[in-house]
């Protein structure tokens, strides 16, 4: 069972938006046992849309299109698909009434543009969109399926979950795909590959290993296609247990795990809490924790101490230390961590202070220099790292490293060797 | 002049990473006057890579591939391209020495995997990668160009900026593309379209208007192809000035402008500062401000007051009001905004308190209910909005609305009508 995804819109091609829809759809279809052959993005013009759809239908059983269904003139997906499938646009009364009701609730005029949303190709199945005005459309030809969905992410996601997947399960029978991904932190790809070479070479032939690298977070995915699902899943678990022995404390979790979700689960299990004192990371650590549902169980709050005044006033950092050592220093980082712990009543305080860039570096403390500290009931400790020259990357890396410091402490990791990152 | 982008990697197809590379490349090529015909993502297997490359070269003059150049076994882009172009892999001494030096600096073993990075197809031009071990490769055939780049974003970006674009300028002559994008905030697409219909209908025929919608931020792009660049640019500016009169205070800026960058520029111009007190947005407002280079000019810091204790201890919120009205209430929001202003010495305080979800809602205060407040030297004011059921969206919308409240105040926007969002 093979699928393709087509995302439609000039804004994707010229990079004004990042196409997150196709990643989300790819993940859902893959989890349902459907292989994704290709993702294509094309412009809001009839010819490229027709060409991409025709090519996709010639390769694959399922084609999911998103985008180009808005009420305005530049959206032509519906007209193009109608022509391609030899259908006429007709008014769908259910959609018409739903758009009318939706505009009434929002005190929006039910104007000609909105009324146009109720026009659908006469041979398709309408998939009602309860979050917006553009309905989804389900086309069938020669046993293959093409689905056209709005590009607004939450409308698309609701339609996929509530309408498209159930219909696909009904319409097709799927092969089994089993996969699981281990998330590692702190080893660069080549070092990781060398360290686990023996493990990799001893994998059974039916398991496929993929490295999914990002800046410092390498994910290792084991996949098995068309095999006994239960047996493959058990073997994957066994292999990952062996991997964990080969790189102790480097696997932070599986699947969707992140450093902050791993720390959150550890804290929840211990009935402990954390707070963050952030200078160079500017609220990103707090944001990463609080993006998780249920974060209030273990996240107490934080202080974004961007100016030195705030470091002294809210975190009790010693003004003499600030003057003598500078804001980017071990004493300031450790006092920030201890200070936010005290101010919020959290079990642990995490702190960052550094030079995110692009300016502000000195020969002694170049852009990318960051001190990270953790303060707990028994001890306060800190490390210094020098990252790179990119502001956004420095913010992410400092956040990750600081959160990882606490993770290592909570896991009981020994000594100092694991605290630094090999990248 | 037409280009296609091919991103290679199973991790893209199954949605484990979002393909941000193609958006970035699309933006750069478009700005350079190159139209993007299509973006394609394919798996790390020889056949789909060959097929996508062959198709792209048949349509377009320029093909940019990223990904699949890592040192590990599952990366096969280089081998596939060599076969496609009928070339052999040979060791490139300059790359070999550079990888050796790079591994030495990082204290990484110069192992067989890393040494393999120095093998390149013998008929391509090597584009040295000073940020990583995989070089870029430039192939030419029948006057067309194919470039293969590593998938790690900052390596790819450096190669595009320093090597690929200068070579493309040398190799091709480009047509002129002029475009500019106005960023609007606070009007849904259909309302915006209706409000500006007269303006849209009066546009000169050679200007193309596109709506680029996201949740509450609609971008309007005017483009002109193959015309006198200077004249088109002046006409676009004139048209956007007319648009601004049609929807006063709704255009927050142009190009890359965001609510926080607009507020930052307004504050910088006035010599004023801001701080944030965040409950439900959990540090996201601080993160959005501090992601901007130079934010320390106007951003003083903030308090993430996730627990009620932190609201009283660090922000001086009245414990009786917290008990009587609840954390999600007008008095608490306004006391948080005033409190963070006082605690940090900022000119303005922004505050949010609400129920991000997915749990915690009540009949009176459903999930998505958020109070947002701004406190300044002369006044403190607040609004209540009820967003939706998605946690991440509620966090983003509450952050945007709160920042926009301050923007409207700084722009001198009248009354209350503009404060609510019509979505």
From TrEMBL, chains A, B:
Q: Which domain of life is it from?
A: Bacteria
Q: Which InterPro entries match?
A: CinA, CinA-like_C, CinA_C, Competence-induced_CinA, MoaB/Mog-like_dom_sf, MoaB/Mog_dom
Which segments cross the bilayer?
A: none
> What positions does the domain MoaB/Mog occupy?
4-171
Q: Which family does it belong to?
A: Belongs to the CinA family.
- Name assigned to this protein: CinA-like protein
What species does this protein belong to? Alistipes hominis
């Amino acid at each position: 069972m093979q699928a393709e995804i087509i995302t439609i819109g000039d804004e994707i091609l010229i990079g004004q938006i990042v196409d997150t829809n196709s990643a989300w759809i790819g993940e859902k279809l893959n989890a349902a046992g459907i292989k994704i052959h290709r993702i294509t993005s094309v412009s809001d013009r009839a010819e490229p849309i027709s060409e991409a759809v025709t090519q996709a239908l010639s390769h694959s059983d399922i084609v999911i299109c998103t985008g180009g269904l808005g009420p305005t003139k530049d959206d032509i997906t519906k007209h193009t698909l109608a022509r391609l499938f030899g259908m006429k646009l007709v008014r769908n009364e259910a959609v018409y009434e739903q758009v009318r009701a939706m505009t009434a609730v929002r005190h929006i005029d039910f104007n000609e543009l909105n009324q146009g949303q109720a026009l659908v190709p006469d041979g398709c199945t309408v998939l009602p969109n309860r979050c917006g005005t553009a309905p989804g459309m389900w086309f069938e030809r020669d046993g293959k399926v093409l689905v056209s969905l709005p590009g607004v992410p939450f409308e698309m996601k609701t339609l996929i979950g509530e309408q498209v997947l159930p219909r696909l399960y009904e319409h097709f029978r799927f092969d089994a795909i089993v996969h699981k991904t281990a998330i590692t932190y702190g080893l660069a790809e080549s070092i990781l590959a060398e360290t686990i070479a023996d493990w990799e070479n001893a994998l059974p032939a039916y398991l496929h290993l993929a490295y999914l690298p990002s800046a410092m977070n390498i994910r290792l995915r084991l996949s098995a296609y068309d095999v006994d699902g239960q047996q493959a899943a058990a073997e994957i678990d066994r292999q990952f247990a062996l991997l964990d022995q080969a790189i102790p404390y480097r696997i932070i979790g599986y699947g969707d795990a992140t450093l902050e979700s791993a720390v959150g689960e550890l804290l929840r299990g211990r009935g402990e809490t954390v707070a963050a004192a952030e200078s160079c990371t500017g609220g990103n650590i707090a944001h990463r924790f609080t993006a998780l549902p249920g974060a209030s169980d273990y996240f107490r709050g934080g202080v974004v101490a961007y100016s030195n005044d705030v470091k002294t006033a809210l975190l009790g950092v010693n003004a003499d230390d600030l003057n003598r050592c500078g804001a980017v220093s071990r004493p300031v980082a450790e006092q920030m961590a201890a200070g936010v712990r005290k101010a919020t009543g959290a079990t642990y305080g995490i702190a960052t202070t550094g030079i995110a860039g692009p300016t502000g570096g000195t020969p002694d403390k170049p852009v990318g220099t960051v001190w990270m500290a953790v303060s707990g009931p028994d001890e306060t400790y800190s490390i210094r790292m020098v990252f790179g020259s990119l502001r956004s990357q420095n913010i992410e890396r400092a956040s990750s490293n600081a959160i990882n410091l606490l993770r290592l402490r909570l896991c009981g990791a020994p000594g100092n060797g694991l605290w630094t990152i090999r990248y």
